[in-house]
Amino acid sequence: MIRARAARALPPTLLLCALLGAWELYVQASQTSAFVLPAPHSVAAALWDNAGLLAGNLAPTAIEVGLGIAAALVLGFVLAVGVHLSPLLRRAVYPLAVGSQAVPIAVIAPLLVFWWGFGIVPKLAVIVLICFFPVLVTTVDGLMASDPEQLKLLRTLDASRWQAFRFAELPAALPAAISGARIALTIAVIGAYIAESQTATTSGHPGLGREINADLTALQTPRAYAAAFVLFAFAIACFYSLALAERWLAPWAAHPRERGAGA
Amino acid sequence: MATELQSRAQPSPLPAAAAGGIVVENVSRAYRGSRGEAVPALADVSVRAARGELVAVVGPSGCGKTTLLELVCRLQSPDSGWIASAPAALMAQRDMLLPWFDAVENAALALRIAGHPRSRARERASALFGELGLEGFQRARPSELSGGMRQRVAFLRTLLSGKEVLCLDEPFGALDAITRGEMQQWLARALQREPRTVLLVTHDVEEAALLADRLVVLSGRPGRVTAELEADIPRPRSATDAAVLALRQRALRSLALSARAEGALA
Predict the structure, then answer these.
(1) What pLDDT digit, counting tens, does each position of A122-154 carry?
(2) Which of B91, B160, B171, B246 shows the smallest number of beta carbons within 10 Å?
(3) Please, which residues have CB within 8 angstroms of residue A141's CB and are 6 or more apart in sequence?
């Protein structure tokens, strides 16, 4: 068991080592300034020296990502169900949802701060705006893709619209919705960076995004890289914890796809 | 959704005749082909099944057998003609088990839809598993069952719908010969115990002769009724009974005749 797990961790570890090695060599060979591209060893040193500071800044960012993604999942899912059940809502909401993805956050950031101040709420709003979309699109597609023959069967058994949704469409859409959630969760991390960059904060630990921007301005490039590395690792951890959730929520999706046997 | 379908069905002049049974009168149905042309599936078909009667519909593939069943189950409307039927449950060719439910949950689907509490519905369905040779597979997912087992779970689901009319579309087509024989005997016994009106579509003439009170022979596309054979044979029947064999011969002859007639037309 442990051996198998170690064997699975080997390829990404090797790839990471190779990339870090190439990076180190490149920096040494090209004499690139540490302000532009710090070498991996100096990033590692910055990580070690600033572990407390980075951990302190990871906390608010992780909370933003956690709450933001939760709200985005709920919003994306509820909108998807609404869009699926109501053609009117589909025509009304879908184009606007697509358009919302093109709105530069900087345009609306002052408004968000004006409404909700320097706390976590405007940051959550930014993350939700960025992350609800993949959930919406994948869930709508998943709901549309349910087997028409299954719906026919439910009709002959006198299932109501709600029962057809509950017994067939919803479980059929769940794997797609979870895929959407995985995409959303991954971009939620960069969403948190954007949110922190665009909306001011007054608290002592402003989050990793703020930290990165402050370090870059102060020419503390290795520490900015170290903070970025923390975001990198955090995104990976989020992604795989959701994969575990999928195994629990939709175990049938882990098997080869069911399409009904016989003819 | 069901009520909406009911109300869309035409006001039939034949509801009294259908009480507990099926009346299909002069029904035609065509599909739109890929180039928009009308492709007739059924032409002027009339079939009746009295309450508690098992009518087998046999015919070559593509004769509109599935269309006939979907019309009776109100999944489609006829282009012309009348259909009246007591509430009907359909067992389609594909088993249509829901992969996210275990076997019992699939079998109990109609009970859940009817609003029975989950534990009671599962109990009732589970009690019938032994009789169908499914004991011990209650909690198996559909992907873990053999084709024959899946078919039996689908069959159980249809029975548990509690509808007076059962529309069976090649119900045992995917089974091996031995299991098929067992299932046919089981169906005959189950219907004797708890009579239902059954419209059985099959291309297995022997199965039709073994189970049916009456055989309706359809021609190839578009389906037309070319013969109706009474099967006045006492039960229990066996595939080796002289009367069953004779009926099988007559049905095969009707099928061959209609095929030859088509050949002459073409």
Answers:
(1) 889 899 999 999 999 999 999 998 888 888 889
(2) B246
(3) A176
The parent domain of residue A104 ranges over 39-250
Among B134, B162, B190, the domain-final residue is: B162
**Residue range B247-254: mean pLDDT, rounded:** 88
Note the pLDDT tens digit of each residue in B43-85: 888 888 888 899 999 988 777 888 899 999 888 889 988 898 8
A187 at the B interface (CB within 8 A)? no
In the three-class reduction of DSSP (H, G, I as helix; E, B as strand; rest coil), residue A135 is classed as helix
**N residues, chain B:** 266
- Strand B80-85 vs strand B22-32: parallel, antiparallel, or unpaired? antiparallel
Q: Which residues pair with B199 in a beta bridge?
A: B55, B167
Chain A nearest CA to B232, separation (Å): 31
pLDDT above 90 for B225 = no
Across the interface, whether the CB atoms of B141 and A252 are under 8 A apart is answered yes
Find the CATH number of the domain harbouring A122: 1.10.3720.10
For residue B220, being part of any structural domain is answered with yes
Judgement on whether residues B79 and B195 belong to the same structural domain of the protein: yes
Q: Which of B149, B40, B133 is nearest to B97 (CA)?
A: B149
Domain for residue A152, yes or no?
yes
Residue-wise pLDDT for B147-196, tens only, equals 878 888 998 898 888 888 999 998 887 778 888 888 888 888 888 888 88
Low-confidence ranges of chain A (pLDDT < 50): 255-263
Candidate from B75, B97, B113 with C-beta closest to A260:
B97
Contact residues, chain B, for A165 at CB < 8 Å: none
Q: Which residues of B touch A147 (CB under 8 A)?
A: 96
> Which residues form the domain of B105?
97-162
Q: What is the CATH number of the domain that holds B234?
A: 3.40.50.300
Q: Which residue of A has its CA nearest to B72?
A: A156
Binary contact (A258, B99; C-beta < 8 A): yes
ipTM of the assembly? 0.76
The DSSP letter of residue B37 is -
The 3-state DSSP class for residue B48 equals: strand
Q: Does any domain span residue A22?
A: no
Q: Distance between terminal CA atoms of chain B? A: 43
A260 vs B94, B110, B112: nearest CB: B94
